[in-house]
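Q: Structure tokens for this one, please.
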Amino acid sequence: MESVHPPADSQVSRVPTQRTPPGQADAPPVASPPAPRRRRLSVVLAVVGGALALLVLAGAAIAYVAYDRFTAPDRSAPDVVVDNYLRAYLVDHNDVLAKQFECADSSTGLAELAGLRTDLSAREKQFQVTFVVKWGPLEVRAQGSRAEVFVELVISYLVENLNQSDHQRWRFVTERDDDWRICEAGRAS
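A: Here is the predicted structure, written as tokens:
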């Protein structure tokens, strides 16, 4: 028997066909392998990743709440509000922080205190001095959701190595809604 080769430009494969030798049965089909470990590993990694993501989100939420509580201004009592307000408004000149201690409609009620701060700033520029504002104990007279707070402001400055000071008694009217706020301020008589 002579073997016939296909022509050179033919699409027929030149690989010899494989046949089962006579007397041997066809090989049994190969069973599918068990689930690969890689699939189980990816499921475990996905579960661990999801748990970590939830922990990070929970941690961020807790951090936000804690930050909000620790940085929120303390408006728990009338004297605390007045003390914090004086520090923000007269000492630090921080109007943004001071605003957090004021009633919503307090602009006219706080005009006299604004005048004091303006006057002190003008004198500092004119006379090249620095005013220091301090205060003593705060006296609270509460009546329900309103309270009057009396305090003596001590305004001091240094001139030619002599410490000068002015004592002024002030009255602050505070009101309580959810927390205490300052609505009025003026010199006490």
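A few notes: The two ends are 135 Å apart (CA to CA). The chain has a mean pLDDT of 86.
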